[in-house]
Amino acid sequence: MVNSKAEALGIIFPNSYDALIPELVTERLMASIPFASRYRMCDFLISSMVHCGISNISLLVRQNYHSLMDHLGSGREWDLVRKKGGLNIFPPYAQKSVKVYTGRIEALESIKGFLKSQTEKYVIMSDSNVAVNFDFKELLNRHIESNADVTVVYHKQEIPEVFKRPNGVNKEYYYTFDVADGRVKKIYINSIQSGITNYGLNIYVIEREHLIQLIEEAYVHGYTYFVRDLLVPQIDTLNIQGYCYDGYVAHIHDMKSYFEENMKLLKEENLHALFDGNQIYTKIRDDNPTRYVNGSKAKNVLVADGCVIEGEVENSVLFRGVKIGKGAKVKNCVLMQDTVIEDGASVEYVITDKDVTVTAGKSLTGNDSFQVFVSKRQTV
Amino acid sequence: MAKELVAMLLAGGQGSRLYALTQKLAKPAVPFGGKYRIIDFPLSNCVNSGIDTVGILTQYQPLVLNEYIGNGQPWDLDRLYGGVHVLPPYQQASGSDWYKGTANAIYQNISFIERYDPEYVIILSGDQICKQDYSDFLRFHKEKGAEFSVAVMEVPWEEASRFGLMVTDENDKITEFQEKPKEPKSNLASMGIYIFNWDILKKYLIEDEADPNSENDFGNNIIPNLLRDKRSMYAYRFSGYWKDVGTISSLWEANMEVLDPEHSGINLFDEEWKIYSRNSGMTGHRIGDDATVEDSMITDGCNIQGTVKHSVLFAGVTVEQGAVVEDAVVMGNTVIKAGAVVKHCIIAEKVVIEEGAVVGETPEDGGVGQVATIASYVTIGANAKIGPNAMVYDDVEEGGEQW
Questions:
Q1: Within 10 Å of residue B223's Cβ, how many Cβ atoms?
Q2: What is the value of ipTM here, to two decimals?
Q3: Contact state of B289 with A299 under an 8 Å Cβ cutoff
Q4: Could you tell me the CATH superfamily of domain A291-374?
Q5: What does the pLDDT look like over B330-380, one tens digit per residue?
Q6: A4-275 has which CATH code?
Q7: Model's pTM, two decimal places?
Q8: Chain B residues bordering chain A (beta-carbon distance below 8 Å)
């Protein structure tokens, strides 16, 4: 076999960390949250995998996955229409468990038959709350060279604020690692340590046969979580290697971070860091180019196709098909697809979901620490 | 199953009057309107009209065009039965031939059309910017009981003698055809778009091929022959936007008209009649802190730090700080460096305009006038000057001039 194909299949958990950002997931899931003017969160991981020769990618969805299915379709835009492999979306297996699974072990157990019938030697698993232009080939090579049982990916950064907030509503798990000579010595669950940590990105590599064996054992014991119930107890017996990712990471874990991560891309170095690697694929909408009509003003913006700008826009990220009317003012905003800001309206520090209309002359203002959010299809 | 209507798209023209722009690609592949190529218009019209079988006849510099069309998926023309097919001239047992004329190109592909056993064939031209519903044209053809119909546009009488004209009676029946006459009897100009009953077309193609004196051309041979035989021929009046972009000035003008859809009538912002294209896949465009963008179209991958006024920019164009772009058509991945001034011109793909260079100038009378043109992959050196009448095929060195 030629060397362009990676010996791995990809598994993506598109619902991970949904609970942290309820505003955006009422009608979708983490993987289909719009990001960076024309993408959805899952585009980054799927494209990265495809560019590394992974052409067998499965998404284990839990709930609210209509928008994801609409976005991905047959997977053509990601070059994933394949006779072997390609794109699979696994909905929950209703007959088997009345309760929809909560952790990775249950989810993987439900596709055990699929996993057994595949031929790729390795499995790469990932959540979808990170936007990265990731080199999975290098990760896979490092996994193989280090003779690891499991490789976990981490990024040197502070633990996101939302997790450390006292009395927070967070019920999600996150992990930080002690790593020595590449080997993970200790795994911390929901640490509240301050300063730079080895923060887990929830990207894992493991041999397929080994994964099946671990899942079978764990499932019998009624375990739920892959890291908490499987890796932590076996940290001494399994060779768990840490892989430090030092590229650009956009992390979505609440509305504030959603806003900030979009805004960060207005800085050219960040935009380059995220997009200069491999091309990120996304669904094609066949919009016309964006039109700046006489009298419009634009300053420091990231804009997708299909917009018509007649008013003023500054420090903002505009998704496809946004209309800004005459005399309207848009400042420090993230406006998702087909948002309409009518003539003379003014919005500042506002995030609009898809198909929002702000009617003529109306004004909406948030501030840099709290942005006004207008949910899907609302009219202000 | 037979197809009712098969489209044959003539895309073999060299487009010699586009000079530098068609050195490496055929005219239908010339970029247009920020993210399209000319051929996107007839292809999108086909799919929007319900035509799912299209043969594209290529001959001149087909490489870019072939790659662009691919399997036809961007136009939804990747079909199990039908779909889009690129048809270059090919070798046959009896020998091989280039396409000698428009009619000969179709003649050589009779067997392609026969595979679909159509009732009607529509002949399209790959060098026009036009949004047209061919299904309405077909409805007209059927209602009139025509054997041949041609789409026509009313043109001003004073310009009529530049066109091939259809003289019709009160029922739109064609009584006479005048090719660029000195004394026009009609102002209905042929758009070069025809619907034939397939049996009629086939008969006349075979006859025409057998005539050694024929130029094998629809306008010069096939249509006069149909008239001679008093076939049932009708003119279908089309009144929307239509532009033959066969010259540098008309191509520039059509691009500028895209910027003013309210007056020009070419609206690319039409959800009901989308123009499809192969997308660049680049990320959204960026407009910087000190940039000025007025009355322009900008698409994915552009990075604007300078001034852009009344211009059409294609995917991935960079305009550095202090650069000025005015009344310009700038095609994909071109870089305009700091302090360069680019006015009233067409710049093809992957051109580099170095710092301080000046390209073109705005005519004093504000008309179309001269449009400076730069071929793809050319570098214009720092502080070079390119005159308004220039046609630049090769690199211009630093401080150099070309008029």
A1: 24
A2: 0.88
A3: yes
A4: Hexapeptide repeat proteins (2.160.10.10)
A5: 999 999 999 999 999 999 999 999 999 999 999 888 788 889 999 999 999
A6: 3.90.550.10
A7: 0.90
A8: 33-35, 73-74, 259, 268-269, 274-277, 279, 281-289, 291, 293-300, 303, 312-313
